Amino acid sequence: MTNKPNLRLYHTGVIVDDLRAAMKLWGDALGLHWAPPLSSTVPLLCPTGIEPREVVFTYSLEGPHHVELLEQVNPAPYLNLTGGRYIHHLGYFTTDLPGESARLESLGLRRELSGVTDSGDVTRATFHINPVSPGMWIELVDQSVAEFTDPWLAEACAKAGIEYVSPFRLD
What are the beta bridge partners of residue 50? Predict the structure, then answer.
């Protein structure tokens, strides 16, 4: 018998060349509405060392399994990933990022990208390559990111008149 993972699937991420154009196309094609785009610049630990990652991104308001669109302002960290830049990932929320990252690594899903603190510890999120489905990554997202993302999505849904169901619970 195995322990139940401390994870919850909450988004699928898609890298796009033009965020605004992708929001329009995906929105029109799939009837999706979008949270206001945000930008993020953080250091990521890559196979080649620490690289700054800058992206502009949004989430669909419809969920709780959301579509995430990411436009890479600086694609350098993602270019270091096995399989290249145009990746897709399943984003899982966790309250135990170091533990769940280690568990995935123990199962053969190598961690190739992660947020990193000044002391070198894993923080914010990790990306693990799936050896049986190259190009389909597993991203683990820490509670600290969820604490920011949850109210952002809730407010955007309220403004759009869309019911919001938080994906950040492990029950």
Answer: 45
CATH of the domain at 19: 3.10.180.10
Whether 168 maps to a domain, the answer reads no
Quick check: is 169 in a domain?
no
Query: Does residue 164 belong to any structural domain of this protein?
Result: no
Contact predicate 166/66, CB 8 Å? no
Nearest CA-CA partner of 95 in 3, 1, 5: 5
Are 88 and 114 spatial neighbours (Cβ–Cβ below 8 Å)?
A: no
- 78 CB burial (10 A radius; 0-12, 13-18, 19+): buried
For the chain, residues with pLDDT lower than 50 are none
27-43, pLDDT tens digit by residue?
987 789 999 999 999 89
Q: Output the pTM of the full model.
A: 0.72
